[in-house]
Automatic annotation (TrEMBL):
Protein name from the UniProt record: MBL fold metallo-hydrolase
Metallo-beta-lactamase domain mapped to chain residues: 14-192
Organism: Paenibacillus mellifer
GO molecular function: hydrolase activity; metal ion binding
A Pfam family reported for this protein in Swiss-Prot or TrEMBL: Lactamase_B
TM region positions: none
Catalytic activity, as annotated: 3',5'-cyclic UMP + H2O = UMP + H(+); 3',5'-cyclic CMP + H2O = CMP + H(+)
Function: Counteracts the endogenous Pycsar antiviral defense system. Phosphodiesterase that enables metal-dependent hydrolysis of host cyclic nucleotide Pycsar defense signals such as cCMP and cUMP.
Record-linked InterPro entries: MBL_Glyoxalase_II, Metallo-B-lactamas, RibonucZ/Hydroxyglut_hydro
Cofactor(s) named in the record: Zn(2+)
Signal peptide (residue range): none
């Protein structure tokens, strides 16, 4: 069964939100509903949303959580190291850039994520990789040959490590020790910018070889 992936570039920081569907196209999963999620909300009007999966809890990735959760009555998953970030604007960074938007706070997540966890959603299995460095609770989701890397690995780039809880050594360990061990053909869907592949990044990324 192929995973159908649609991307939406949302909010002032151009965050990638992903809408995933399996064989039953009436059911879907959302990864990182970014700020100003109007286009995504319109797209999911007739869909059942099984889950909102968060790669991490920075404000530009969680801005649409409450609107979608209330509209679709769906659970939210986040790594426990960032569970407090959903409810606390100071932690999720939304107080740092008032020109971007108002403080963001949501209700707590319903479920925690953990390294190696297997989630069975929309007829597919998602494996959770804890990939800290950009933030302490950053995770990546692997479904078949599709990897959703959040702000850990980008096309020819990596996530910044100068925000709260970021650590450069952790980021490089996450990429080299976990993501670069995946197959070359694994497609990478990042939190910002265009998609890439593990093989291309392993060969060409100027930050992590």
């Amino acid at each position: 069964m192929m995973l159908k992936i649609e991307s939406f570039t949302l909010g002032p920081l151009q965050t990638n939100a992903y809408l995933l569907r399996g064989e039953d196209e009436g059911r879907a999963v959302i990864i990182d509903p970014g700020m100003k999620p109007g286009p995504l909300l319109r797209k999911i009007e007739g869909l059942d949303i099984e889950a909102i999966l968060l790669t991490h809890a920075h404000f530009d990735h969680i801005g649409g959580v409450d609107e979608i959760r209330k509209a679709k009555n769906c659970p939210v998953y986040v790594h426990p190291l960032e569970s407090d970030w959903l409810t606390t604007p100071k932690l999720n960074g939304s107080l740092m850039w008032p020109e971007v938007g108002p403080p963001i706070a949501t209700d707590p997540a319903e479920y925690d994520l953990a390294e190696g966890q297997k989630l069975r959603l929309i007829g597919h299995e998602f494996t959770v990789y804890h990939t800290p460095g950009h933030s302490p609770g950053s995770v990546s989701f692997l479904c078949g040959d599709d990897l959703f890397s959040g702000d850990v690995l980008f096309r020819l780039g990596v996530g910044r490590t100068d925000l709260a809880g970021g650590r450069e050594a952790d980021l490089y360990n996450s990429i080299r020790g976990k993501l670069y061990r995946l197959k070359d053909e694994v497609k990478v869907y990042p939190g910002h910018g265009p998609r890439t592949t593990i093989g291309f990044e392993r060969a060409n990324n100027p930050y992590v070889s």
